[in-house]
């Protein structure tokens, strides 16, 4: 049987870190086994589901590069099928009408709490005839769940997990208004879409026991379950807004690369081995193994994510990096880059990306290439341009002005010749030269900077610093 996985978020908010990891694990598992990854939007809660949240989920997945093979399916469009299954179960005696009122349910909960028992429906309408209910009374349809024995989940991560059936109640399939519940809709859609493996957060583990009861009542093929541990903050508590942003779009806007985000997310619970310090998701797919996912919670560490981002920025192709970094350069400069400037950025990136941890950091360190004169000058850079330094730069300016070939090697040779004539060490020339050209104390090599700025701009900046 071909492997089919699915990611089924509820569109009630942004694509959070835990959801992104769940989607990634489903994608990796499907690719590992040559299967199919499906996207389904579980939007049966029409009051809380929004188009904005749906768009944010789709955008977040697309940014991460997690492409679905089928879908997106929208659960609310499949309600007629869900309702038909419930009615079929009712007709077969696998479910029943429950006429318990809200007062009845409140009393049940109060009695359970008083007896120190978990609040559960007590099955009072399980075997009663409908004639006992008042004419026209509203009702829900409940599963006639097994009352004895156990429901065992053979989980690919957690192993065998056992639930006593006596602790599981007859849960609702259809509400009083005829709408299906999450439990029913999920089971029906997973079956109809041919889902073979349900990989999701372990907060859904209790749902799995109930869903298995429903699947077995219907006589359908059972999916294999894998419940992923929660993600905690650095303080060991469940990741939440108080730990900072939990939506992936925040990290996109903060200048993290999607490869870095995927690399880090897949390591929140899965260990590919020390021989693989960093992996793209395509590199990781052949190695992915749910049996190597930790049973304990993972901890989200921004420093570790930043370290991964540092790696992937260094490894990125300049043309790709220029395109993803361009908006950050434009924000830094408060203007758009021309296509010619974008081409210059591609050429400049090999010298810039070695030090950058995020895209804003990259833009901040490389914006000097695109500044208009007079370029802004850091205080420490201005301090390097004292009278003695300017005298040394005048010789450098003269030798550079004589060059017929404005390219890296002749430029470097001219600077070296000036250093030799002055009888000083290179920093005595290189540091003020860098300051004059960039307004900064850190930059790529000065010969590279001069080459990329071009003859006219480079000499104009030197003249301005010397004036």
UniProtKB/TrEMBL annotation:
Sequence ranges assigned to domain Glutamyl/glutaminyl-tRNA synthetase class Ib catalytic in this UniProt record: 4-306
The entry's keywords: Aminoacyl-tRNA synthetase, ATP-binding, Cytoplasm, Ligase, Nucleotide-binding, Protein biosynthesis
Intervals of motif 'HIGH' region: 9-19
Annotated motif 'KMSKS' region, positions: 238-242
Residues that coordinate or bind ATP: 241
Molecular function in Gene Ontology: glutamate-tRNA ligase activity
Aminoacyl-tRNA synthetase class I anticodon-binding domain mapped to chain residues: 321-466
UniProt keyword annotation of Cell inner membrane present: no
Entry EC no(s): 6.1.1.17
Catalyzed reactions: tRNA(Glu) + L-glutamate + ATP = L-glutamyl-tRNA(Glu) + AMP + diphosphate
Keyword Aminoacyl-tRNA synthetase: yes
Gene3D superfamilies: 1.10.10.350, HUPs (3.40.50.620)
Localization per Swiss-Prot or TrEMBL: Cytoplasm
HAMAP family xrefs: Glu_tRNA_synth_type1
Assembly behavior: Monomer.
Assigned protein family: Belongs to the class-I aminoacyl-tRNA synthetase family. Glutamate--tRNA ligase type 1 subfamily.
Record function comment: Catalyzes the attachment of glutamate to tRNA(Glu) in a two-step reaction: glutamate is first activated by ATP to form Glu-AMP and then transferred to the acceptor end of tRNA(Glu).
Protein name: Glutamate--tRNA ligase
């Amino acid at each position: 049987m071909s492997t089919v996985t699915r990611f089924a978020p509820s569109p009630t908010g942004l694509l959070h870190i835990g959801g992104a990891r769940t989607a990634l694990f489903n994608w990796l598992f499907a690719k590992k086994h040559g299967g199919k990854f499906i996207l389904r939007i579980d939007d049966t809660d029409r009051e809380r589901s929004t188009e904005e949240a749906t768009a944010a989920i789709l955008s977040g997945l697309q940014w991460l590069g997690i492409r679905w093979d089928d879908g997106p399916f929208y659960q609310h469009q499949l309600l007629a099928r869900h309702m038909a299954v419930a009615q079929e179960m009712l007709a077969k005696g696998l479910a029943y009408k429950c006429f318990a009122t809200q007062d009845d349910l409140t009393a049940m909960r109060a009695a359970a709490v008083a007896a120190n028992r978990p609040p559960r429906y007590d099955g009072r309408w399980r075997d009663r005839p409908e004639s006992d209910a008042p004419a026209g009374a509203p009702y829900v349809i409940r599963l006639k769940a097994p009352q004895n024995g156990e429901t065992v989940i053979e989980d690919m991560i957690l192993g065998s997990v056992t639930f006593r059936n006596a602790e599981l109640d007859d849960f609702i399939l259809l509400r009083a208004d005829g709408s299906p519940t999450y439990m029913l809709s999920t089971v029906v859609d997973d079956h109809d879409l041919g889902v073979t493996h349900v990989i999701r957060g372990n907060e859904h583990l209790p749902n799995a026991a109930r869903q298995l009861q429903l699947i077995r009542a219907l006589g359908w093929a059972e999916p294999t379950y894998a419940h992923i541990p929660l993600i905690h903050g650095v303080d060991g508590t469940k990741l939440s807004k108080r730990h900072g942003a939990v939506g992936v779009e925040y990290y996109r806007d903060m200048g993290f690369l999607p490869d870095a985000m995927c690399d880090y997310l897949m390591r929140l619970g899965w260990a590919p081995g020390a021989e693989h310090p960093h992996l793209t998701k395509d590199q990781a797919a052949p190695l992915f193994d749910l049996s190597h996912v930790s049973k304990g919670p993972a901890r989200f560490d921004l420093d570790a994510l930043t370290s991964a981002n540092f790696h992937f920025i260094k490894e990125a192709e300049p043309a790709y990096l220029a395109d993803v970094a361009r908006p950050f350069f434009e924000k830094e400069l408060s203007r758009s880059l021309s296509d010619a400037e974008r081409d210059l950025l591609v050429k400049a990136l090999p010298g810039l990306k070695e030090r950058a941890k995020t895209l804003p950091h990259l833009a901040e360190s490389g914006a000097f290439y695109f500044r208009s004169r007079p370029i802004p000058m850091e205080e420490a850079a201005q301090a390097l341009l004292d009278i003695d330094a300017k005298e040394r730069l005048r010789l450098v300016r003269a030798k550079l002005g004589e060059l017929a070939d404005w390219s890296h090697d002749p430029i470097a040779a001219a600077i070296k010749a000036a250093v030799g004539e002055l009888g000083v060490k290179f920093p005595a020339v290189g540091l003020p030269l860098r300051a004059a050209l960039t307004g900064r104390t850190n930059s790529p090599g000065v010969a590279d900077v001069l080459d990329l700025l071009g003859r006219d701009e480079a000499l104009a900046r030197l003249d301005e610093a010397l004036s």
